[in-house]
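Hello again, I could really use a second opinion on something today. I owe you a coffee for this, so here goes:
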Amino acid sequence: MATSYQSVSELVVTARQLYGQVFGEEAPRVAVYAPGRVNLIGEHTDYNQGFVLPMALPLVTVVVGSPTAGQDVTVLTAAEDADEPRRVDFSLPTDGSPLSPGLPSWANYVKGVIQHYRAPPVSGFRAVIASSVPLGGGLSSSASLEVAFYTFLQQLKPDDGDMVSKAVACQTAEHTHAGVPCGIMDQFVSVLGKEGHALVDQATPVPLADPRLVILITNSNVKHSLTGSEYSTRRRQCEEAASILGKDSLRDATMKDLEEARNRMDDVTYRRARHVIEEIQRTVQATEALKRGAYKEFGKLMVESHNSLRDLYEVSCRELDELVAAAIKVDGVFGSRMTGGGFGGCTVTLLQAHAIDMTILHIQVNTQTHIHIYMANVPNVSYQDYHQYTISRKEAGR
């Protein structure tokens, strides 16, 4: 069976209970949430200005809290996988000086969002975080946290409400305070994602409402951390390749350009660039296939994407390769691939609805990894209305 996860309402209850235990006062006045995401295809292309095809998930991050007098901030996380301590206390500077990143690492995302909030200055508050997005699983737990926290600040002190600028501010927060030079995809889909749709760009949702179609996410539970050197190294290699090709980004390059310049770059740089250029084209083809309902074609492109990420970009691992190999052997599975930054995390599998149970069983029997499996296209939660969750009177009395 697929792994169960807490709904938005259940996460709010969890966060509110921790809030009451720690602060022992009236219930928090604000509750907001933002979804994680899964990328169906188009991996390591966003920071190369290339195309992606992500969709928002029913796995979300919730933030509850209340404003306080003064400049003191207290934030707690209920996430058991978060690094210690799970409580941070700090004061907001009144002289315009920046908030410095430090430990624990999860708090750097919070500090970064405060630093880049578009309606400063922010006053003091108390807040609790709860999430169903697995940390380090390649499902954008960081972007989900950033967007949820930005939405929380919007309830305390509203900005102009511009959604694109909100996503950019959250991306900048990850750059400056988490040290991850990520693209904009994760933040965009967490802000702008629409239930039951993939998102080609900020303005073009692609429906995924076919009842015969299921998207499974399999978490290898191999943790990754994009704050390490490998992610930055891949981005630097792509920028070097674009420079050699005389392009602003690899989105503007073709395989003909790359082959003509092959003797001017080392083999590793060539392989990184080849993945990106071909992956951008695969994503264009996959988007058109999805619009036509050509799921076999889409699945074939997913497998090609995984092979490229494994062999050319070198961001897969044994556990992810095993999960993909097991999934694609099942009748009714269209395709499977690793998703997210890599070095662990999750796979995403596209399959026919009748094959769900057989696919889950086959993956569980034929892999050596302790896994969790989620159904991604579940009509469980709406992502609009500024991601604000209204606390009912009944909940407020708990």
User: Anything to note?
Assistant: Confidence is low (pLDDT under 50) at residues 378-386, 389-398. The first strand starts at residue 30 and ends at 39. The two ends are 32 Å apart (CA to CA). DSSP finds twelve helices and eleven strands in the chain.
